[in-house]
Amino acid sequence: MLWAAIQKYSNMAVGFISGIVLARLLTPYDYGCIGMLSIFMVLSEAFIDGGFGSALIQKKNPTQTDYSTIFWWNLSMAFLFYLILYFTAPLIAQFYKIPELCDVLRVQGLILFTYSLNIIQRNQLRKKLKLKILATNSIITSVISLIVTIVMAYNGFGVWSLVVHNILNSLIPTIFFWFYVRWRPRFVFSWASFRELFSFGLYVFLTHLVERFASQLTGLVIGKVYNPQTLGYYSKALRTERIASYSISSIMTNVTYPLYAEVQDDKARVISMIKRMTSTVAYATFPVMFMMILVAKPLFILLYSDRWLQSIPYFQVLCIAGLAACLQSINLQAVAAVGKSKTMFTRTVLKRVVGSCAMIGGLFLFGMKGLLIGVIINAWFSYLVNISMVSKHIGYKSIHQLMDIFPIAFAAALSSGIAYLAIDFFGFNMYLDGALKLIVCVTVYVAWSLIFKPESYRNFISVIPKKFRIWEKNKILKKIMT
Questions:
Q1: Which residues, at least 6 apart from 236, have a Cβ–Cβ distance to it below 8 Å?
Q2: Counted domains in the chain
Q3: What confidence tens digit (pLDDT) does each residue in 62-119 have?
Q4: Domain that holds residue 288
Q5: What does the radius of gyration of the chain's CA atoms come to, in whole angstroms?
C-alpha cells in the first residue's frame, strides 16, 4: 500500500506541475483535439488486452505457455488495430472536420505496439505485488515525459507536445520492463491455454470495452456537437476532479485485486476487505470532494489562470459524481476476483446503457447542464448496481454498505456547509476566502473524527505505516488522538 501511495502521489505531483505549466503554454483547443481521439485509442487498447491481463492475475498458477500465448495474441492485435486506425484516420478527421487529426492519430497510434509489449511484464509484477518496481518506473516515466512535453510546448509544438507525452508514457515503461523483468516469450501459442483464459477473460474484456467506450462517449459527443474548446474545458475539469476522486481509490485497487484473487474462496475475508477498503476510501475522499466544490474558483484561477474559468461549473458538478466514482473499482474488482465475470459484464451493460442515455439525452435536451446532471445519475446508478452484485455474490449487503458510508458523507457535507456559512458572510478576497474555508472544513472534520472515532477513521489510521504515525511519538498529540 505504501509503494502504491508513493507511485500515485508522485505522479499526482508531477501531473500537478504539468497541469499548471501546460495550461499556460497550450490551449483548450490542443487538449480538445487529443480528447477527441481518446475513444479510438482506449477502445483499441481494450481489444489488445482482451481481458487476458486480469485473467492471468485471477489464475492462481499461470504457466510459461499461458504467458507466451497471451503475449503473441496481444502483439498480433496491436498490428491489426494500428492498421485499422491508420486507414480510418482520414475518415475520423473528416468526421470532426479537423484535418490535422489524421496525422495526429497515425502517430499516436504507435502507442498500441508499446502497450502490447509490456502487458505481460506489468501484470506479472502486479500479481507478485512488486509495487516498488512499478512505482519507481512510473515516477521516472512521469518526470521524463513532463520535461520533454514542457520543452516542446514552450517551443510552439501545440497538440504534438501532448502526442509525444502520451507516447513516452508508454514507451519508457516498455523499455524498463524488458530490461528488468527476466521473463521472455517463447515461440509457442497454445489454443488450450487461450481457451482457458478466454473463458474468464472474455467477459472481463467485454466489461472493459463497454466501460471504456461509455467513458469516452461523452467526449466524442461534446467534440461533435460543440467544438474542441468546449471539450477542452470539460476534459480539464474531468482530469482535475479525478486527481481528487481517484487518488486514494487507485492506490487501494492496485493492491486489492491480486489480494481478492488470493482469498477468493473465503467470502468472509473478502467481505472484511471490501468493508475496510470502502470505509477508508470514503473517509479520505469524501471531505476532499466537498472541499474542492467550495474552493473551485480560486483553485482553477491559481493553477490554470483565467483562461480556464469555463471549466469551473463542470468541475463542481463532476465532484458530486466523484463521491460515487471513487468507490466503483473496490466493489467491481471483488466481483471479478470471485469469478463472476459474466455477471459483471451483464450489469456493466445495464449501467452504461442507463448512464449513456442519461448523459447524451441530457446533452441534447438541456445542453451541457443536462449532460452534467446525466454524469451524476450515471455515477450513482453505477455504484448502486456494483454494490448489488457484491451483495448477491459475496454477501456484503447493499444496505450495510450504504449505512457504512452514510456517516462519512454526512460529516463531510456538514463540515463543508459549516465552512461555507462561517466564512462566506465576511466577503474576503477570493484566495483568503478559499483558504479559510479549507481550514474550517478540515478542523470540523478532524474534530468529528477525534470525538466520535468512527470505524472509518480507525481503518484509515491503521493503513498508515507505524513509522509515519508522528502523533504516537509525541505525548501531547497522542493524548489528543486517544
A1: 19, 23, 28, 31, 304, 308, 311
A2: 1
A3: 888 888 888 898 888 889 989 998 999 999 888 888 888 899 889 988 988 988 888 8
A4: 2-481
A5: 23
Only one residue has cell 503473441, namely 72
Contact present, 89 and 106 (Cβ < 8 Å): yes
DSSP code for 26:
S
Q: Rounded to an integer, what distance in angstroms lies between the CA atom of residue 150 and that of residue 18?
A: 8
User: Hey, what's the cell of 398?
Assistant: 447493499
User: Which residue type does 124 have?
Assistant: Q
pLDDT tens track for 256-270? 777 787 777 788 898
**Residues making up the chain, counted from first to last:** 482
